[in-house]
Design goal:
43% of the residues lie in helices and 23% in strands. It is of the alpha+beta class. It has 2 domains: 256 residues, no CATH class; 106 residues, no CATH class. Strands 1, 2, 3, 4, 5, 6, 7, 8, 9 and 10 form a 10-stranded mixed beta sheet that branches. Helix 2 crosses helix 3, helix 5 runs parallel beside helix 14 and helix 13 crosses helix 14. The radius of gyration is 22 Å and the shape is globular. It starts with a helix and ends in a 6-residue tail after the last helix.
Length: 375
């Protein structure tokens, strides 16, 4: 635990100057410690009690009223992740997740589909970017989705939730583009980008990534066109001979190797040195099909495309761990800025936990290589 304390303090030092006063600066450290503590619920009351405070006022003030820049903290956390987990072969993974809520006043809340719940629920939706490398995987960026008609079109409701008039509507694919652009502009090292069909079916997003020479494997719907004005990806795949399918592993999952049959088909690409493909995945057990749009170096192998497609599960693991271990979804705030503040500190705690785990795994590998045993 002393090692954990030192690592969290090291991360906290990186963004300490983002706080105007010492009181919220120190409380942010205690807040993150509470997020990592084995508490059943991690809200203002329980975090305050864990920090030895008599009331939740200080924790609530940290999220709602204290002067500090959550975006600056986010950037420092991203720098920390790159320094400790950085890998030029890493994959950036985009996805959204739901936060179930009661009432109507929390910024962005409404009845909407939540993949987390698997149904339409009263919830907030956040769009996230995860960094997945051979060292570990963690969340590095976030945006709160604000529905257009029930929120952005109602500026009075927005103001009541602390959403400024300058905040415009953005679809989830557009939010993903924004957070991916931040990673690119910051020089985050990676080789590929992947995301599910909610993002991959968006031709504008795929075109933007290709224009910035970002290699990607993006899931898409069967009805999405393989090329502009052409046939659907499902029709293109259905026309291929059976001998073109190859059995490959998409990596190790919770139940062992994730083995499927895979097929890739080259489609026209006008970018020198790059190629485009439609990739299909077929379940061995029931024949269920999934489809992907791919863009990358011309010499990319099928094995690489399959591994990148399989890397998408990393962000689901991040969501599960961040919610279960770091209180990502335990907040009780309503204001727009407070959401970003809690989520950012939870992401920082998760990044720290990931770095500690990576260091411990490296230490154990070193012990094994020398013939020693770990306590």
């Amino acid at each position: 635990m002393e090692g954990w304390d030192a690592e969290l303090a090291c991360l906290h030092d990186r963004f300490g100057d983002s706080f105007l006063r010492s009181e919220p600066r120190q409380r942010a450290l205690r807040y993150m410690w509470g997020l990592l503590a084995p508490l059943e619920r991690k809200n203002g009351w329980t975090l305050a009690e864990d920090a030895g405070e008599a009331t939740p006022d200080g924790m609530q003030r940290l999220l709602n009223d204290a002067v500090w820049d959550a975006d600056e903290v986010r950037d420092r956390v991203r720098e920390y992740v790159v320094e400790r987990l950085g890998d030029p072969e890493a994959v950036l993974v985009g996805d959204d997740t739901g936060f179930l809520k009661k009432g109507t006043e929390s910024a962005g809340v409404q009845r909407q589909y939540s993949g987390t719940a698997g149904r339409t629920e009263n919830c907030q939706i956040g769009t996230f970017l995860a960094y997945a490398s051979r060292h570990g995987r963690t969340l590095i960026d976030r945006e709160l989705y604000l529905p257009e008609h029930t929120w952005i079109a109602d500026r009075e409701r927005c103001r009541a939730a602390g959403i400024g008039d300058e905040v415009a509507f953005a679809t989830k694919p557009k939010q993903f583009q924004v957070i991916l652009a931040r990673a690119l502009d910051a020089g985050v090292p990676f080789a590929w980008v992947t995301a599910d069909e909610a993002f991959g079916q968006n031709a504008e997003l795929r075109g933007w990534m290709a224009d910035r020479d970002v290699a990607f494997v993006m899931a898409t719907r069967s009805t999405n066109l393989a090329t502009p004005g052409g046939v659907s990806v499902a029709e293109l795949v259905a026309d291929q001979p059976a001998g073109r399918w190859h059995r490959r592993s998409a990596g190790t999952g919770a139940h062992g190797e994730r083995i499927y049959d895979w097929l890739r088909i080259a489609v026209p690409c006008d970018v020198p040195g790059r190629k485009r493909w439609v990739l299909a995945r077929r379940s061995i057990s029931d024949g269920e099909l999934a489809y992907y749009h791919c863009f990358g170096p011309a010499n990319t192998t099928l094995k690489t495309l399959v591994e990148v497609a399989g890397a998408r599960w990393a962000i689901e693991e991040c969501f599960q761990t961040a919610k279960n271990e770091c209180g990502l979804d335990h907040y009780q705030v309503r204001k727009y800025a407070a959401w970003y503040r809690h989520i950012t500190l939870s992401m920082a705690a998760h990044a720290c936990l990931t770095v500690i785990r990576a260091a411990e795994r490296a230490r154990k590998r070193g012990l094994r290589s020398t013939g020693l045993t770990s306590w």
